[in-house]
Amino acid sequence: MKIVVLGSRGMLGTDLMTAAREKGHAVLGLDQPAIDIGDYNNIWRHIPPCDWIINCAAYTNVDRAETHPAEAFSVNSEGALNVALVALRKKVRLLHISTDYVFDGHRRRPYSEKIHPNPINVYGASKLAGEKNIRGSGCSYIIVRTQSLFGLHGHNFVKAILNQISKGERDLKVVMDQISSPTYTAHLAQGLLKLLEAPDRQILHLSATGSCSWYDFARAIVEEVHANAQVIPIPSSDIRRHAKRPAFSVLDNRTCEALTGYTMPTWEQGLREYLKGEKLTS
User: Fold this and answer.
1) Cis omega (within 30 of 0) for bond into 117
2) Contacts of residue 116, Cβ cutoff 8 Å, sequence gap at least 6
3) Which of 44, 91, 155, 211 has the most neighbouring CB atoms within 10 Å?
4) Is 259 helix (H, G, I), strand (E, B) or coil?
5) Is 224 helix (H, G, I), strand (E, B) or coil?
């Protein structure tokens, strides 16, 4: 297949480019400053004939979005619509990456695609608006919601914990009351490519198998690297942030599994593979 990846130099985009090439796909990566999804004509000029556009481009600064909502909506809502309209006009299928933050986190069971979204922050609202724009555009699409990404090619929670350890910090305070499924981007890339044969015009959930709090995740990191550090659980109310986070945003992957026969690896497996990669690149 011929695939164009938007946001190709980001954490997920980089792993997706690698995975697509390994699968034998012809893949073109586009990113800023060459591509600006806020500009329809810019997208139109840069997208060659292809089978799929995979849109990883997004405004992801959750806290800044609260004070700069126009920036978040410009990329995550209007930008998503521009990409969808280009896909429609060029008769290309679109795979768009969305987020668990479209949910409010009030449940205590994994969110299926049937649960009605109710975002509690601007970032989540902007991503939900993007989903609605894509669905209303008339293009052939698959929207994939995922969550809590970590990978070798960008800033993420694992790297932040490792940086604290490397600086000699011994008491690591980490939120205990936010639960999700930390997802390794290399694993997510494999799962996304399996969806290229799936029926279109649907929203799907795809994230790591299993779930944990950020406190549990931090403890696992410390244990894996045998660090002389203690992870101290704290409530999210102790951290001053502009944006609220869902307390529980675990996604239900069963629809994706039924479609592809692919079960995402656990977050623990993702962590171990990430740490192996860190050793190889350090």
Assistant:
1) no
2) none
3) 211
4) helix
5) helix
Amino acid in position 72: A
Provide the annotated active-site residues: 123
pLDDT band for 61, please (50, 70, 90 cuts): very high
Element (H, E) at 84: helix 80-90
Secondary structure, 3-state, 1-62: CEEEEECCCCHHHHHHHHHHHHCCCEEEEECCCCCCCCCHHHHHHHCCCCCEEEECCCCCCH
Which ranges of 138-230 would DSSP assign to H, the alpha helix? Answer: 157-166, 185-194, 214-225
- Say which residue, 238 or 279, is predicted with more confidence: 238
Q: Using DSSP, state whether 70 is helix, strand or coil.
A: helix
What's the pLDDT score for residue 156?
Answer: 96
* Element holding 66 (H helix, E strand): helix 62-67
Under DSSP, the state recorded for 215 is H
Q: How far apart are CA 184 and CA 138, in angstroms?
A: 32
Are 102 and 91 within 8 A, CB to CB?
no
DSSP 139: -
Cα–Cα distance for residue pair 42/81, rounded to 1 Å: 13
* Residue among 95, 87, 97 at smallest CA distance from 50: 87
